[in-house]
Amino acid sequence: MILLLGNGFISNEGLLWWEVPPISPNTITTTYDVGIILTGGMITNKLSTESQILTDKTADRFIQPLRLYKMGKLKKILITGGNTDLVVMHEDVSDETLKVAQLLEELGVNKEDIILERKARNTRENGLFTAEVLKKNPKLGTKYLLFTSAFHIRRAEGCFLKAGLKVTTFPTAYKSKAKSWTLDDLIIPRESNLYDNYMLIHELLGYITYKILGYC
Question: In CATH, what number is assigned to the domain containing residue 156?
Answer without folding.
Answer: 3.40.50.620
